[in-house]
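Re: weekly structure request thread

Next one in the queue (58 aa):
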Amino acid sequence: MLENFALYISLITAILLFAYSYVEGLRIANSEGKVHGGTFILSVTAAFLFSGFTYVFI
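Done, posted below.
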């Protein structure tokens, strides 16, 4: 039961982080001048981490 809960939480978190990184990438692409990509890099890395957790809990 706890593994199923962890699977769903990690899957939902991975999907939300991928969506957030997509929106952040669009915001960075539309901005002019110097950009700070720390949030984008962190969200993409965390999304891949949680997608790995999803694979572990299957």
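The chain is about 85% helix and 0% strand. The chain has a mean pLDDT of 94.
Next request, please.
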